[in-house]
Amino acid sequence: MKWYDGAVFYHIYPIGMTGAPRTNSFEINEHRLNKLLPWIDHIKKLGCNAIYIGPLFESVGHGYETIDYKKLDSRLGDNDDLKGFINTCHENDIKVIVDGVFNHVGREFFAFKDVKEKRENSAYRDWFKNLHFDWNNDYNDGLYYDSWDGHGTLVNVNHQNPAVREYMLDVVRYWISEFNIDGIRLDAADVLDFTFMSELRGLTNTLKDDFWLMGEVIHGDYTRWVNENMLQSVTNYWLHKALYSGHNDHNYFEIAHTVKRCTDMGQYISNAFYNFVDNHDVARIYTKLNNKNHFVPVHVLLYTLPGKPSIYYGSEFAIEGEKKPYADEILRPELNFEDYKDAIETNENTKLISALGNMRLSNPWVGEASYRELLLTNRQYAFLRENGDRRLIAIVNNDDNNADIHLNISGEFTEIFSGEKRNFDGNMHINILGNSGQVWIG
Length: 442
Fold this sequence. Notes:
Blueprint: E1 9-12, H1 14-17, H2 39-45, E2 50-53, E3 57-59, E4 66-72, H3 79-91, E5 95-100, E6 104-105, H4 110-118, E7 155-156, H5 162-179, E8 183-186, H6 194-207, E9 212-215, E10 233-234, H7 237-248, H8 252-263, H9 267-272, E11 274-276, H10 285-288, H11 295-304, E12 308-312, H12 337-340, H13 343-346, H14 348-362, E13 370-376, E14 380-387, E15 390-397, E16 403-407, E17 410-415, E18 421-425, E19 428-432, E20 436-441
Parallel strand pairs: 1-2, 1-12, 2-5, 5-8, 8-9, 9-10, 11-12
Antiparallel strand pairs: 3-4, 6-7, 13-14, 14-15, 15-20, 16-19, 17-18, 17-20
Helix pairs in contact: 5-6, 7-8, 11-14
């Protein structure tokens, strides 16, 4: 069992969480990454054993228009700060995954600057997709290039060029040797070159046998990315959507159908998915829920269904954040550690996340367990996770009223929230409170 088979993630958008300026002056006037050091103990108490953090490297604005892959963003500090952060995480048995923005670069990236200056004579003219010198663009460069989703600040690179692939692979070698990272989340993996991702997997396998590659994939057949020749995981946007809409519509059939869609791909793949209820690109879960009390059953499902659970920084406190056009900073706020240092003791939502996270750490076998549906109605849902002689039963209720649950289950179990111990003789009779969840471990 590798570390990522039992991983519980905490997701940090560092430019936002540290309160860094949204535009880079390229001067180090504050070592802001060090503001995250006090959070490591909090993250550990939440029951997380891995951090996905990014973007980290020198960029102009939001971080995904990289201009120097081997330098920590000046707004966050210097490379020694990043080494120190990762070392401290490792000392606390926490793995660190960084953003790998390899599909596109910023307009100030050295190779693109060379193209703008030397045009047809640039040695890097084949580094970019669909580059034409007889067209123009919004910046009046006198040339045209493809960009990610039409955003001119994000210049698509040409991975069909072996020199580009080798450059990016060298970046990964540097990150592993210099910073000792444990994995990479591949930004925009749904449009990233498959040859590059395959070569990346081959490289990382030789450098670290437990290195983890996860791709940002919104739509498509996830098995195209998750296989022995490509990535170990992708973002599970299918389940993300089902978890909030299934509660807003009182429709557990949507969630169960989505889970079946995942498990039909095979037990290994369904357990490999990176599950989340919110992130730096979508509205906060507490904002999306019509009934705020559904925060409990949503997270019980996040931590017990097949896949690796992830909490986006701040959502363990049930903070709000609405997705608005051209206002991503709402989703990426600064957080002051002093305001939340006692949250695990004083905030019921944070207590919930901590109990679920520590349940997963205490029972790493859940990360490789099978899944079997036990009960399904619009408003109640129960399932079994099983690995060898270990079992987990999750029961959730999205109705305002209590519900009586009868399951054909035998054996001794302990409920993680109440500590109640029961020995069932084939009729597991449970009364579950409205808008709540229970997790039984046996």
